Amino acid sequence: MLTIYLTRHGQTEWNLERRMQGWGNAELTSQGLQDAAALEKRLNNLHFDAIYTSTSKRAYHTAEIIAANRKVEIIKDDLFREMSFGDWEGRIIKDIEKEFPAEYKSFWETPHLYTRDQGEQFSEVQKRTESALKLIMKNHPSGTVLVVAHSIFLRILIAYINGIPLEHLFKQKALGHTSLTKAIVEDRKPKIVFEGDMSHVEH
């Protein structure tokens, strides 16, 4: 059996400023660092065969904190990156909503119909999540791995495992920073055990 733990990166400055991040990047806040350390403590007794992380700094910095003193390989791969938002990246969300009302509404309410000539479509990210999952399953027929990634990437991956169509993507539970989701793979069939747990974080 393969066990896969999924977590979202720690809070960043752009999260606080309510900016779209995507392939852009911002530093972890003190809260983000603290929450990542709390997750490291929670997972301290688990052995990981590998840690897979997005190539975005906020994700691999979180992965490095969780890895701590473990002798475990941290594998950075673009497959695990957040959805690209094109020219929305780095911009304040309220400004995007004001300037692109129809596209922004479609993004959140009808993601399966969302389309722009900038960034990625949800279906493209879905293909990436499927490829990422297949990569892990190929490299690890059994054992335990950790994935450190991003909000929409993880929502799409969890939806894929649960058989939820893109149409209902944002009807799922929102994933907090450093939230923990556990999946198991038996007979090449992944299944979610628990989702978005935040019990290690004290606010």
Automatic annotation (TrEMBL):
One Pfam family matching this protein: His_Phos_1
Keywords, ordered alphabetically: Glycolysis, Isomerase
Active site: H9, E82
Keyword Isomerase: yes
Residues binding substrate: R8, H9, G10, Q11, T12, E13, W14, N15, R58
Natural source organism: Peribacillus saganii
GO cellular component entries: cytoplasm
Protein name: Histidine phosphatase family protein
Entry-linked Gene3D superfamilies: Phosphoglycerate mutase-like (3.40.50.1240)
Keyword Isomerase appears in the UniProt entry: yes
GO molecular function, one term: phosphatase activity
Top-rank taxon, per record: Bacteria
